[in-house]
């Protein structure tokens, strides 16, 4: 069975430390993945301001965010403009794109995450344009795909990204490869949704114990027809690197083949058409875009 492997890179620190470390681990295990890069300013530390919100404080404590991400991530861009990741770390991004699929995650991850509900079609198009041009310039080719920060995707995002030559989108959570319905019409730009929970959604008091994490994930994967895993350069690439390496060993022993998301598009011409809608999911603050039940139109088939 194939399992899509997606690596989100949200921050300067994740790009500088997490990405090269993950590349070495992937090379050792002979695995290719899809990296989604953030290429503009790293303002992720602005999340610190959200500490005043009790639910976010609870999550920070529950997941030991400072230990997990490092204080430099939490402070980055909080009080001054953050460093432009693509300018400072272009060699890391270019070297990674030579061996793996490379997609656009964000120009400014924090801005998109915080303001998507107020962004106009023009704002969204401008953000994607800026990120696309920067990433294409760094890697010297067309980025493979688009992945909305924090799965915050709506119809304006689908419409904006349709104007760029991405091969597919990975903008939502879901259960199978599908064509998103936009303005009543199924889009030919397929979505490869993340089907599994992320580390920060699962761990912490009352959650999955760290020692059983990999087995828990492998158990979830075995129950899915289509499985797409999303890890973070900031987590599995730094403090949980050994755990992720162990995961790859265990996955290989079970006969699972981890692949870039684009490989899941093969033989998917008959994918179902589905709407996306905002929903809350366990362990995550705010809404994410989720694949809805597929339309019962002739010829559409659940995969
Ligand atoms: Zn992200």
What would your notes on this structure say?
By secondary structure, this protein is an alpha/beta fold. The protein has one domain (2-294): Glycoside hydrolase/deacetylase (TIM Barrel, Alpha-Beta Barrel). It has helices at residues 12-28, 54-62, 65-69, 71-75, 85-88, 90-99, 109-115, 121-139, 155-161, 199-202, 213-222, 235-239, 241-253, and strands at residues 2-9, 34-38, 101-106, 145-146, 168-169, 179-182, 185-186, 227-232, 257-259, 273-280, 287-294. The strands form three sheets. Strands 1, 2, 3, 8 and 9 form a five-stranded parallel β-sheet that branches. α8 (121-139) packs across α9. It binds zinc ion.
Please write out the topology.
Blueprint: E1 2-9, H1 12-28, E2 34-38, H2 54-62, H3 65-69, H4 71-75, H5 85-88, H6 90-99, E3 101-106, H7 109-115, H8 121-139, E4 145-146, H9 155-161, E5 168-169, E6 179-182, E7 185-186, H10 199-202, H11 213-222, E8 227-232, H12 235-239, H13 241-253, E9 257-259, E10 273-280, E11 287-294
Parallel strand pairs: 1-2, 1-8, 1-9, 2-3, 4-5, 6-10
Antiparallel strand pairs: 6-7, 10-11
The chain binds zinc ion.
The site of zinc ion has 6 residues, from loops.
Number of helices: 13
Q: Which blocks of ≥5 consecutive residues have pLDDT under 50?
A: 298-303
User: What is the helical fraction, as a range of percent?
Assistant: 25-40%
Give the tally of structural domains.
1
> Which ligands are bound?
zinc ion
The count of DSSP E runs of length 2 or more, i.e. the number of strands, is 11
Distance between the termini: 14 Å
| CATH homologous superfamily descriptor | Glycoside hydrolase/deacetylase
Mean pLDDT: 89
